[in-house]
Automatic annotation (TrEMBL):
UniProt xrefs under CDD domains: CAD1
Record family assignment: Belongs to the zinc-containing alcohol dehydrogenase family.
Source species taxonomy: Eukaryota, Viridiplantae, Streptophyta, Embryophyta, Tracheophyta
SUPFAM superfamilies: GroES-like, NAD(P)-binding Rossmann-fold domains
Listed cofactors: Zn(2+)
Keyword annotations from UniProtKB, A to Z: Metal-binding, Oxidoreductase, Zinc
Domain Alcohol dehydrogenase-like C-terminal: 75-198
Name of this chain's protein: Alcohol dehydrogenase-like C-terminal domain-containing protein
GO molecular function: metal ion binding; oxidoreductase activity, acting on the CH-OH group of donors, NAD or NADP as acceptor
GO biological process: one example: lignin biosynthetic process
InterPro entries according to UniProt: ADH-like_C, CAD-like, GroES-like_sf, NAD(P)-bd_dom_sf
């Protein structure tokens, strides 16, 4: 397998992926973007977009009337909300931060917001969701999320916490519930996702930056100061960084 960047190509050179000004790839691994879409706002769909689109489809969440929870409102979470809404699902954003409420409801169009620190809200929402997409990479308890699921509900993990999660068996047994994971998707599904996004005007919320801003962007990223993806303007600014 030759990855898009940081691996060795057939001729021994290192692949630089999106940091390249030109790139050659086998036609099997090329995605066609419709002409009417913004490339800078659609580029993150190839990573974050397919990461949420694929499990929504695979686990049966992409159906009208399904109640889907989205844990975490970041790069993955905001796109999960957009895709789930486009599929016709009822979407509840689940977050530890009340500051995300207005963003979730007014900007992204979620149907409801659940503050996971508020035990009254959590109690009221138990056994109401068909599925949950968990995008959080920080360590967090998943039992409260399992309790939000209906019988036969599915919790799908997209984040990768450093420490192992504690998974209680009894709540799974009693409701025949499922905890699963997902990462990315195949080329056919990526193209399907891009076409679906173009049809429904789904793009990532991005901040376009010049190449020379990358170090500052990394510092901001470490602080969580991005909404929700930095996109480097390689075509217009890469030449200015060369000696």
């Amino acid at each position: 397998m030759i990855l898009t960047y940081s691996t060795i190509y057939h001729d021994g050179t290192i692949t630089y992926g999106g940091y390249s000004d030109t790139m050659v790839a086998n036609e099997r691994y090329i995605v066609r973007f419709p002409e009417n879409v913004s490339l800078e706002a659609s580029a993150p769909l190839l990573c974050a977009g397919i990461t949420v689109y694929s499990p929504l489809k695979y686990f049966g969440f992409a159906e009208v009337g399904k109640h889907i929870g989205v844990v975490g409102l970041g790069g993955l979470g905001h796109l999960a909300v957009k895709f789930a809404k486009a599929f016709g699902a009822k979407v509840t954003v689940i977050s530890t931060s009340i500051s995300k409420k207005e963003e979730a409801l007014k900007h992204l169009g979620a149907d409801s917001f659940l503050l996971s620190r508020d035990q009254e809200q959590v109690q009221a929402a138990k056994s109401t969701m068909d599925g949950i997409i968990d995008t959080v990479s920080a360590s967090h308890p998943i039992l409260p999320l399992i309790d939000l699921l209906k019988t036969h509900g599915k919790l799908v993990l997209l984040g990768a916490p450093e420490k192992p999660l504690e998974l209680p068996a009894f709540p799974l047994l009693m409701g025949r519930k499922t905890v699963a994971g997902s990462a990315g998707g195949g080329m056919k599904e990526v193209q399907e996702m891009v076409d679906f996004a173009a049809k429904h005007n789904i793009t990532a919320d991005t901040e376009l930056i010049p190449m020379e801003y990358v170090n500052t962007a990394m510092e901001r990223l470490a602080k969580g100061d991005v909404r929700y993806r930095f996109v480097i303007d390689v075509g217009n600014t890469l030449a200015g960084t060369k000696p």
